[in-house]
């Protein structure tokens, strides 16, 4: 039995409040190590160097906490709590990896791409992508499910249509987070409302004043980007026709291949656990594909004709390590050779490091030590709004987790909003605008890592094109400075009033 919790040193020393220097050291360490990783390794920094940097930052934070009198057992307990908080996210990540592999093997993603190429025009592709993802995310309330399914297909279509996969990824993220922020089925929407104790529909109605203008701005910019592209006319059309022919030659393209997608949407609307819905859809696709794509399964399993053991081997391998194709056409092979739970392990490592670091900063008072002076300096309503927004964004960067960036600001600033006569739905809108939608813009945040992993585009590359995610916090802060749609409290028992 370990005696770590019974060591005499665990109870020695008086616990001291952290100093400003204590709070700044982990942040400076993070900035230094992340900057060095990006400088030395470039876009490969997420393949291990940034993960290592985050683990070192955890160690630095733990040493500061120990210096202030906290026991190692308290740090271990904080670490356990951090890992427990992301258990669901880790299983969702692994399930999405399995789903992408199974859907590529079974023909679901190739069928989405095949039909999508024939329906979607390159000139309107970016705006159509944002709209499609926005509608789906609003319907099911999950940005991760939207990006990991429809988003993957749309990025694949973009490659074959020779439009930018980077801009397409930005459009996917923009649409997906419209739903994550505004759908009554979204966990973050519900949490933001619950944390300030307002009705979820009151919260949604209030934040539509930023969500809809921000999404409209995004649609206009995506439209301009699409109309401004130069088509390589005949050669591009010829190449697309070749790729379509190759897909149709490899797979039996039929609407039946889309049944796993329909099952996933049904599970999501019914609010079944995401990891369960994703895995069931992956397994269903694996079974269905064995009947619809026997030759693909046989080739992948190394057989001349498909056997039962070959089908099981193919599905198992696709879910574990992903599907691979060697058709001789680069775009087709890049689209199909993806997925598998193993492809998510770097992302899991990244999330573990980031969330543990954030939990240590929060638990041992280092975040609060940084934020309290900011509250005191925010004299005006606009200044307070800016401070909340910067806090939520900063927590996405430092803590690496969307939920921390939503929960902590509501907890820290709620009393200050009441003190200043500001209705709680102002705060819930602010944290949704600045905490929820900026999370996929940070490479080591759980959301940024997920989006990059499933879409196959670096977070830093798609970031400039996440127009909705950038516009939302800017609009929210602008409303604070102008007073537009800022709901104020009257005296106790009186109705709320709204500045216009």
Task: Compute the number of strand runs.
Answer: 2
Work out the strand percent: under 5%
Radius of gyration: 24 Å
Shape: globular
Topology as a string of helices (H) and strands (E): HHHHHHHHHHHHHHHHHHHHHHHHEE
Strand adjacency order, main sheet: 1-2
How can the largest sheet be summarized? 2 strands, antiparallel
First and last CA, distance:
64 Å
Q: What is the averaged pLDDT score?
A: 84
Query: Percent helix among the residues?
Result: over 70%
Model regions low in confidence, pLDDT < 50 over at least 5 residues? 1-9
- Count every helix, treating DSSP H or I runs of 4 or more residues as helices: 24
Structural class given helices, strands, pairing?
A: mainly alpha
